[in-house]
Amino acid sequence: MNRTIARATGAAVVLAGLMTLAPSVASAEETRAFLGTTVEKTSASAKRTALQQAYDHASAYGYTQDQCVIIHLYSVKISFVMYRGEAGIHCTK
After folding, report:
1. φ, ψ (nearest 5 deg) of residue 79
2. What's the CA gap between 51 and 79, in Å, rounded?
3. What CATH number is associated with residue 72?
4. Strand order in 68-77's β-sheet?
5. Highest taxon of the source (predicted)?
6. pTM higher than 0.85, yes or no?
């Protein structure tokens, strides 16, 4: 008899725990990361183009710019007149 009560109590505690998680799982937000890369003649142009490319990728998945946060944005000189730009964004719906 005591084992049955203990099992029922344990099951009720587990069920209560799962019920508290259910609303947070149902309201989970969809997040994705997007990357843009390019090669340009100036550092500013490389950054700008890479960032626009990342936003373009995000818009293809239904995200707007105000739903996105810039994670990284930089450029590296790869030759005398060329820069490689990279931008990473994280978007949440």
Report:
1. -160, -170
2. 21
3. 3.10.28
4. 31-40, 83-92, 68-77
5. Bacteria
6. no
Domain assignment present for residue 83? The answer is yes
Q: Could you give the C-alpha distances from 57 to 20, 44, 83, 89, in angstroms and in order?
A: 36, 20, 21, 10
Alpha-carbon separation of residue 42 from 10, 17, 73, 75 (angstroms):
65, 56, 14, 9
At 25, which amino acid appears? V
In a domain? residue 44: yes
In a domain, 13, yes or no: no
Closest by CA position to 89, among listed 72, 74, 76, 66: 72
* Token output for 89: 């964004």
Number of folded domains that form the chain:
1
Residue 19 falls inside a structural domain: no
Question: From first to last of its 93 residues, what are the pLDDT tens digits of the chain?
Answer: 555 444 444 444 444 444 444 444 445 689 999 999 999 999 999 999 999 999 999 999 999 999 999 999 999 999 999 999 999 999 999
